[in-house]
């Protein structure tokens, strides 16, 4: 249990750091963090599949961290039903925490500085979900 909690915390910190580095946006940082910890055999280039999801898919809609987390679940899990179930759980958790999943709305009611924090929180949550799969 302690190891699981430590991994969740590490994923949270790693994703936030990747976002703050400027090399990755929210979706990419979540996906890269989960790839490193849960599917390190896959190449880093796989993260490119999330490139269009940053900033709410560049339109401000669904939070990129949530999109990246959804992609990460599908990347790691080999079970469509489980992926869909955990994706739903991710959305429920996120809405309980932030009331909405809309990037524009979150950024309008919070300082843009919240994005790295959200990115880390989502990566930590995905790690938690994968640890209990």
Report the portion of residues in β strands: under 5%
Q: State the helical fraction.
A: over 70%
Order of helices and strands: HHHHHHH
Gross geometry: globular
The mean pLDDT is: 93
Termini, distance in Å? 14 Å
Q: Major beta sheet, specifics?
A: none
Structural commentary:
Helix 1 runs antiparallel to helix 7 (114-131), helix 2 (26-38) packs parallel to helix 4 (64-76) and helix 3 packs across helix 4 (64-76). The protein is built from seven helices and no strands. The model has no long low-confidence stretch (mean pLDDT 93). The chain has 133 residues and is mostly helical. The two termini are 14 Å apart.
SSE blueprint:
Elements: H1 2-21, H2 26-38, H3 54-60, H4 64-76, H5 80-98, H6 103-109, H7 114-131
Which features characterize this protein?
73% helix; mainly alpha; 133 residues
């Amino acid at each position: 249990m302690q190891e699981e909690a430590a991994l969740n915390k590490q994923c949270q910190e790693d994703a936030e750091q990747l976002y703050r580095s400027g090399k990755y946006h929210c979706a990419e940082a979540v996906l890269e963090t989960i790839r490193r910890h849960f599917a390190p055999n896959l190449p880093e280039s796989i993260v490119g599949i999330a490139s269009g999801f940053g900033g709410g898919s560049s339109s401000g809609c669904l939070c990129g961290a949530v999109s990246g987390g959804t992609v990460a679940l599908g990347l790691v899990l080999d079970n469509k039903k489980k992926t869909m179930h955990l994706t739903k759980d991710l959305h429920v958790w996120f809405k309980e925490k932030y009331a909405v999943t809309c990037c524009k709305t979150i950024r309008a009611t919070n300082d843009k500085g919240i994005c790295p924090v959200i990115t880390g929180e989502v990566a930590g949550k995905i790690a938690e979900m994968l640890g209990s799969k």
